[in-house]
Amino acid sequence: MTLSAGLLFSDRIEALLDGRVKIPGVKLDIRCVEAQTLFRSVLRDAAWDVAELSMASHIAAVGAGRRDYVGLPVFPSRAFRHPNLYVRTDRVRAPGDLAGRAIGLIDYQQTAALWVRGLLADDHGVDRRSVEWVTGGLHVSVTTDRAPFSPPLGISIRRTAETLDALLRRGEIDAVISPTAPAAYADPDVPVGRMWPDHGRAQQEWWRRTGIFPIMHVVVVRRALVEANLDLPARLTAAFSEALALAQRDVLERDYPKIALPGLPALIEKATIGYGPSLWDYGADHNHAVLETMLRYATEDGLTPRPLSVTELFG
Predict the structure, then answer these.
(1) Is the dihedral of CA 103, 313, 232, 234 positive or negative?
(2) Which domain of life is it from (predicted)?
(3) How do the domains of the chain map onto residue ranges?
């Protein structure tokens, strides 16, 4: 059977794209799509048989009782999010200063925002209910959420037609959480900087203390297909896992640089020593602590009306 698959391009799916990994009885018709466009097409239109999805949005969908898709314990995107908090340096000196402030987000359901809200609350006492969360496009106006969402009592979310970059420049918001740097960050005339300038050190200290490498995305498959082919999740999970293993081997064993980055072997060795060799491994059991933390954050954020179990994410 041929299944449509909407994925982000990465080395973790390269072996599926070039045919080195094959799935018994399944052909994936893969289309690589930009993240925000892809997530909206999944959440609003259920447009793909197999898709990569924001993990926070998947958690919110499960919490809301949506049954379009089944999650697979496949996490093709992971990232530390300390680099992604940009602040007005003329008024925010320490993370705790963000209590009672206005913080811009691309979308309240964005997974990067879930992680930053969580570490601000856990490590710096920033109560989510004290913050005005302002959602909008970073450099282009976006006036709708990626999926319908009504915040719980006590959580203040305001969507703006203006760009977050413009609001940050004018000082109408105090910070922005974004995987992409706002243009104001590169403007020497605007007092905007990273909350953690030495974010590499901050994230490694956090890793040593928590053991968490944040999950960003999950792979989902259409529920109707799973109900008609009960072994499909196992076949897909095995294929994505094989593609991940090949990607990791490619980085280590190629005799020319896999990516256009000088000094790659030294960086790989440093990362392996600092974080361990199994950082990217898939599977719910291997990632149980990370998933439990995400579910706690989602409950505290109001993304789910009740606490969810890890099992519910993949059932």
Answers:
(1) positive
(2) Bacteria
(3) 2-78+215-313, 82-210
CA dist., res. 109 & res. 60, Å (int): 8
pTM for the model stands at 0.95
- Looking from the CA of 147 toward its CB, the CA atoms found within 13 Å total 23
| DSSP 8-state class, residue 81 | -
Instruction: Indicate the pLDDT class of residue 107, thresholds 50, 70 and 90.
Output: very high
77 pLDDT above the threshold of 90: yes
Asked if pLDDT for residue 273 goes beyond 80, the answer is: no
Q: What pLDDT is recorded for position 253?
A: 81
Q: Which of 203, 192, 200 is nearest to 86 (CA)?
A: 192
Q: Which CATH number fits domain 2-78+215-313: 3.40.190.10, 3.60.70.12, 3.60.21.10, 3.90.960.10?
A: 3.40.190.10
Flag whether pLDDT at 129 surpasses 80.
Answer: yes
d(CA 125, CA 130): 10
CA dihedral 171→177→182→186, nearest 10 degrees, is 80
**55 touches 217 (CB < 8 A):** yes
**Top CATH class, 82-210:** alpha beta
Which letter does DSSP use for residue 229 in this model?
-
pLDDT at 272 exceeding the cut of 90: no
* 132 sits in which H/E element: strand 132-135
| 82-210 has the same fold as 2-78+215-313 | yes
Strand partners, 215: 78
Burial of 89 (0-12, 13-18, 19+ CB in 10 A): middle
Banded model confidence at residue 271, pLDDT cuts 50, 70, 90: confident
